[in-house]
Structure formats: structure tokens, C-alpha cells
Design brief:
By secondary structure, this protein is largely without helices or strands. The chain has one domain. It contains two helices and five strands; from the N terminus they run H-H-E-E-E-E-E. It has a three-stranded antiparallel sheet with strand order 1-2-3, with no helix packed on it.
Amino acid sequence: MFHNASLEAREPRPTAKHLAWSSVLVMAAAILAAGCEDKALGRPCTLITDASVGAAQGAFEIPATDCPSRICTKPAVQPGVSNDLNTGPYCTIACNSDNDCNGQTRDFGNPNDTRCMKGFTCAIPFGQGKLCCQKLCLCRDFFSASVGPATPAACQNDAGASCS
């Protein structure tokens, strides 16, 4: 006698092995997604204190609610950097090396974009205050290419001993 089985009956059922591999793939995807979290490095932000400091002076805002790291900064502009620098304040993050500093950069097709043009480097911008001697990702636009960011005197020898 001929039996006409349905398609569902012909398909093999998932085994415990298949289910285990599916779970591993889902967990790996979750871990990768967490590791690739957008920390918004380079996102424009607002400095409340920016209006009270000169264009060449550095400033930061903590807590900056428009930044996931809660740190908005504008480093001091080094001598030798163009006077028509139009890079604005941006969200930054703590870092250990330049490898930690991949962030948003300027869209040169948008004349209103004031994000960083030259990328980021890991350096110490401030020798006092809440960010005293802490390494942060800094926009290279604010530094002379031949000099790079200068470590504040308070942070050079006894790495932060003067911070309190």
C-alpha cells in the first residue's frame, strides 16, 4: 500500500546538537554586538563653559548628557594650528592607546559638519579638575602635526600625584 506522508513528517527534527550550535551562535552575536557598542566618540556635544573660555583654551563638561561616556570636550588649540579651525566640541571616551580611539569624523560633503577632520589620538589633555591626568581620545585637529598633544606638566613625572 502506498502511503503519502506530509512534508513535515519528512523533515528531520532538530537535534540537541543543532540546538546547542544555535545557542552558541546567538551568544557569539550578542558578545560581538556588545564589543562593537557605539560609544559616540566624535559626536558633537554642547559645552556650557565654552562661551566663557577663549577659542584656544581647552574645556570639558561632566556630566554631558548628550554623550554616552558623559564627557564632552574641546582640547586647547596648540600654537601653529590654523586660526580658522572650525572643529567643535565632541563626545570623548577614556583610552589606553590610539587603538581605542576610532570615532566619528567629518562628512566633507556637509558644510555644517564640525566634527573632527583628522581622526583621534589617545593623550592627556588636562592637568587639573575632574579629568586631571586622565587619558582621553582627542581630535588631532587641535594639535600641530609635528608636535602632537603635549602632556600637561602636572602629569609628566609622578603621573597624577598633583591631582586631588
